[in-house]
């Protein structure tokens, strides 16, 4: 049954979640939807890296990760960001459980492009049976990391991770929640975005930085059959909705 909803929450968005957001989660829970929150934490990773005098380098919005940066990423995501989000959910009396890639082979991955990005990956496998069981009672909260078949941890961009997970779960919806109300062009939200328009906005350097992996991730999930894919700062408004060519 197609009943999974995947929501990506940017690291900077966690402390800005609204009453409407939590209410929507409660509604979906009461309808029997299985909800997975994939959280970011990029700005905290950069902050700690700088404090430790480690280089902070991003290419196309993806963090170049050597072994030390990978360690910092795991520590920040699993030691700081995830507990913070769980705390917020608990304070709202929403039943949630923290998960990571190594829980019962939850997220398996492979290198994205080792030469260019280092220990960065994409998610290739998921333990759907485990989620089917856990998410009947709890909202899952998961960090964007993966473990390879040879037990190497990998850092995964949180937008990429959410899209990979939504595709693998055959989810009905993917919400990429961020600190802007959608894709902006001249200060206005682009309500519907086709691949062609996204390509043009990228070429014109209107879509830059962290919005780039979000767009790539959004189209990847849409192409694999996730019906509703949106980039937004609210669950209750669609922000920018991904559409087929020619529909906008
Ligand atoms: N065309 C665009 N429309 C909206 N935001 C954009 C655009 N191009 C670049 N951005 C930047 O992308 C940011 C969102 O990406 P990012 O900082 O990675 O957020 P998150 O941590 O939520 O993933 C916005 O805050 C904005 O600075
Ligand atoms: C490979 C890669 O880029 N990983 C990201 C993972 C966290 C993330 O994406 O966090 P936000 O969504 O808050 O930016 C990083 O290290 O920043």
Automatic annotation (TrEMBL):
GO biological process, one term: L-arginine biosynthetic process via ornithine
Main localisation: cytoplasm
Keywords on record: Amino-acid biosynthesis, Arginine biosynthesis, ATP-binding, Cytoplasm, Kinase, Nucleotide-binding, Transferase
Catalysed transformations (reactions): N-acetyl-L-glutamate + ATP = N-acetyl-L-glutamyl 5-phosphate + ADP
Residue ranges constituting the Aspartate/glutamate/uridylate kinase domain according to the UniProt record: 4-233
EC number: 2.7.2.8
Protein name as catalogued: Acetylglutamate kinase
Biological classification of the source: Bacteria, Bacillati, Bacillota, Bacilli, Lactobacillales
């Amino acid at each position: 049954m197609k009943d999974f909803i995947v929501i990506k929450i940017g690291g900077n968005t966690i402390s800005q979640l609204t009453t409407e957001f939590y209410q929507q989660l409660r509604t979906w829970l009461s309808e029997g939807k299985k909800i997975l929150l994939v959280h970011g934490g990029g700005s905290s990773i950069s902050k700690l890296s700088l404090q430790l005098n480690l280089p902070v380098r991003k290419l196309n919005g993806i963090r170049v990760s050597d072994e030390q940066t990978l360690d910092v990423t795991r520590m920040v995501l699993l030691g700081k960001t995830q507990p913070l989000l769980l705390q917020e959910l608990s304070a709202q009396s929403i039943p949630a459980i923290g998960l990571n890639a190594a829980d019962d082979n939850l997220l398996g991955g492979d290198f994205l492009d080792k030469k260019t990005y280092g220990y960065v990956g994409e998610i290739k496998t998921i333990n759907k049976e485990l989620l089917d069981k856990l998410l009947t009672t709890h909202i899952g909260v998961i960090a964007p990391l993966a473990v390879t078949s040879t037990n190497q941890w990998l850092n995964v961009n949180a937008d990429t991770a959410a899209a990979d997970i939504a595709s693998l779960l055959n989810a009905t919806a993917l919400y990429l929640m961020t600190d802007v109300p959608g894709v902006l062009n001249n200060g206005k939200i682009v309500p519907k975005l086709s691949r062609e328009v996204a390509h043009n906005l990228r070429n014109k350097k209107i879509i830059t930085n962290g919005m780039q992996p979000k767009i790539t991730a959004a189209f990847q999930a849409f192409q694999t059959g996730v019906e509703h894919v949106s980039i937004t700062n609210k669950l209750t408004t669609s922000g920018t909705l991904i559409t087929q060519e020619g529909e906008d």
